[in-house]
Fold:
Amino acid sequence: MSNTKSRRLFDSPDPIEAIKFRMEQQGLAAADLVPIFGQRSRVSEVLNRKRKLSMSMIRNLHAQLNIPLESLIMDYQLASS
Structure:
């Protein structure tokens, strides 16, 4: 793996941080994500790391918020119960 490519992997935020960053950039609230996620409870679960992103959510986030797929498909830890 090239140095540049490995640097990009380590610099990439996890999917939840990428979503929160884009929300901040665009002045969006959690309620604004309901059309993307389908339900308010699902938005909360994802943003609080209690639920993983589905492929449908990833596609919608990429299409509607222009978040790079590379950031959205990265693995991340769920919050401990």
In short: The chain has one domain: 12-72.
